[in-house]
Amino acid sequence: MLKRYTGRTLVVEIIMALIGLLFLSPFYFLFVNSVKPFGEIMSDSASWPKVFQWENYSKAWELTQFPQAFTNSLMITVVSVAILALISSMAAYRMVRSNTWFNRVLFMLLIASMVIPFQTIMMPLLRVVNELGLNNTRTGLIMTYLGLGAPMAVFLFHGFVKSIPLEIEEAATVDGCTGIGVFFRIVLPMMRPMLMTIIVLNCLWVWNDYLLPSLILQRPEMRTIPLATFAFFGQYTKQWDIALPALVLGIAPIVVFFLFLQRYIVEGIAAGSVKG
């Protein structure tokens, strides 16, 4: 088996392995320090724990009210991503198949909005949320995620729909399938790679987001996992021995989710680039 390697290939693979270890190093520091007492974290954060202090996790579980924070994060993520994926896929399909001037202008406006920094619209966005009475509600946060995530999702779905042969839809129409039936029975299943890509990318974004929940959700019982974890960092104190286990608890579900579905990201983007 070693004969298949050339000198250049072997060097490249060693370099890639070292780069992979470099990117994994933050996870090492996160885990080993999550089971250390505070003093040991401060004195030597890179060393292996002398004694594994698993009590840190039970303290983090209780102080963050983790079940409630987890439920809030899960509800917001699932609802936001599900609605975003469905609406964006339907909008992109309509824009491609009905290539009117209105749809072209709308698509260009969506693409143009992707280059606007969030900081420039943050205050007007909060004002709109307050005027609508959606401040401090999950509904307001979910609607904000829909507005901010739709341009990229429509852009990716738009490119993918172009790779779907129109003849398949015409054949389904001849067989008596309605327009809605064509989308849900024919088009949407064929869009599965891109659909999973949108779901994975937006789940990572919504689950790990801190800024938007901190701006819209103020009540303690509505805190998401990032907000609950940030409570351990004050102006004068930083409870690393509790914050790090809370971070591990918070990222574990999304890491597992990503590992199971990450292959769809490459498949979806590659398939969407077949036709421009």
From TrEMBL:
Q: Membrane-spanning regions, if any? A: 12-31, 73-93, 105-122, 142-161, 182-207, 242-261
> Mind telling me which InterPro entries this protein's record contains?
MetI-like, MetI-like_sf
One Pfam family hit = BPD_transp_1
Q: How does it sit in the membrane?
A: Multi-pass membrane protein
Where is this protein found? Cell membrane
Q: Which UniProt keywords apply?
A: Cell membrane, Membrane, Transmembrane, Transmembrane helix, Transport
Q: Which domain of life is it from?
A: Bacteria
Q: Does the keyword Cell membrane apply?
A: yes
Q: From the record, what ranges are coiled-coil?
A: none
Domain (ABC transmembrane type-1): give its ranges.
Answer: 70-261
Q: Is Ribosomal protein among the key words of this record?
A: no
Please name the Gene3D superfamilies in this protein's record: MetI-like (1.10.3720.10)
Q: Hey, which family's this protein in?
A: Belongs to the binding-protein-dependent transport system permease family.
Its protein name is Carbohydrate ABC transporter permease
Q: What is the lineage of its organism?
A: Bacteria, Bacillati, Bacillota, Bacilli, Bacillales
